Amino acid sequence: MNALPATIRTVRWMVRDTFRQSLASRLFWVMLGLTVLCTFFAMSVTVTGAEERERHPAELPLRMPKGEGAEGIDEPHGTVSVGFGMVEYPVAKSKSDSVRELQLWLAGILADTAGVLLALLWTAGFLPTFLEPHAVTVLLAKPAPRWALLAGKYFGVVLFVALHATFFVGGTWLGLGFATGVWDVRYWLAVPLLVTNFAVFYAFSAFLAVCTRSTVVSVFGTLLFWILCWAMNFTYLRLTAAPIQGITPMAAFLVDAGYWVLPKPMDLSGIFFDLMDAGTYSTPVPELDAVKQKGAFRPELSVLASLAFAFGVLSIAAYEFRNMDY
């Protein structure tokens, strides 16, 4: 009867210990400092001379050069200034589109790619350090299931990254809003997508940590695994968009199987791309755009398959941890 309260208490203490570890290693302040830097960058943006306008049905080009607008289509006017005037370029189509383009770069490219990779590399040492015999034997002597210890540490890291993802999105959203007057709430959808992307790959990092207890293996193994998943995701989209002549049925089957089994980082970026309605002001990924036009892109199944992979890998890691000798 006391198993459930003990498990909840164990997970809670592991989450708390993770935040304590992040403060002790100064990682909390490093990530917060990067968020402050990006927020300062967002506050340096100004958009002048651009007015909001209705979008014409025949308005196809992402950027319309002056003098080349079709009849009935207003040409965009205005300038986007970045870095307090250090860099200037013409607006995309309107003021809001130009701000959303910057949001796409900040969350969809900077945070979702570089940010997630850095978070994976910086947090890869949390679990191996925790699993060292001199650190974990004290916890194993207490009446708590081992899987709860591992789950608590995993969720602690995920919540730590979720907190900083919220800081990043919130800070840059406020910075751009105060600087330009554009307050697009869809930008906040980046938070759950960033956390999902990180959580899926950190599950694999946890698996490596349990199997090897090595920070080096966790760091480089997770990085190589991310590259593998990105390459598999791109290959699937490429073959679905335009099948390559001469590819064998077995090769096509293996690509399909690899796509559905492994996490899909490009798909998660594509989901955020769609939520921000980015196709009207930014160049899409040709392969992903072609798959969408064919009706073969299934974002819900993509997210569910990625989460299923994370659950499966964590389950294997918990089983290995349960049978590990100390």
TrEMBL record:
Organism annotation: Gemmata palustris
Keywords, alphabetical: Membrane, Transmembrane, Transmembrane helix
Transmembrane segments: 27-47, 104-127, 147-175, 187-210, 216-237, 301-321
Name of the featured protein: ABC transporter permease
Organism lineage: Bacteria, Pseudomonadati, Planctomycetota, Planctomycetia, Gemmatales
